[in-house]
Design goal:
Blueprint: E1 11-12, H1 14-21, H2 25-33, E2 40-41, E3 47-50, H3 53-65, H4 70-77, H5 88-115, H6 130-133, H7 147-150
Antiparallel strand pairs: 1-3, 2-3
């Protein structure tokens, strides 16, 4: 039996939000402690969440899978209104912010995929073809590490 309130109610229980998001109750409590959702309490002290918190917590799950930190996620969620359900326009603002970061990650992943079997610009000069990809260790001028993957080459 589901333990959430009828659709007419604006608030739902922690069990209902767990069922809808696939998160454990302890995970929801953790996200609450991190300021990612802010439930109210009923007269019995039980948490009650906005239905829109389903979307917030779903966003948290996706953003974490994409490698964003709790702090980065919190910064974005803090841009959403607390007093009403976020609109598509509200979510679009967050999307634009994350899009630039995701585009940079996609670009780096593409470079890694394309160069993983060849030179990654580490400056090691140990492969026979390093002289072709990295003559005089030009990658070393950009810093240490895999410069051809970490930074776009011109």
């Amino acid at each position: 039996m589901r333990d959430y309130l009828p659709m007419a109610e604006s608030r739902i229980t922690i069990g209902a939000i767990a069922e809808r998001t696939g998160l454990s109750i302890s995970a929801i409590r953790f996200y609450e402690s991190q300021g990612l959702v802010t439930p109210t309490r009923n007269s019995g002290g039980q948490r009650r969440f906005l239905r829109s918190d389903i979307r917030r917590l779903s966003f948290v799950q996706i953003a974490q899978q994409l490698g964003f930190t709790i702090d980065q996620i919190r910064q974005q969620l803090n841009k959403l209104p607390d007093n009403r359900t976020p609109t598509q326009k509200d979510w679009a603002g967050i999307s634009r912010t994350f899009a630039a970061d995701l585009d940079a990650r996609i670009d780096m992943l593409t470079r890694m995929r394309d160069r993983l079997d060849g030179c990654i610009g580490c400056g090691c000069l140990s492969l026979e073809n390093c002289a072709l990809y990295n003559p005089q260790d030009k990658a070393g001028l950009g810093g240490s590490g895999p410069q051809f993957v970490l930074h776009k080459q011109t």
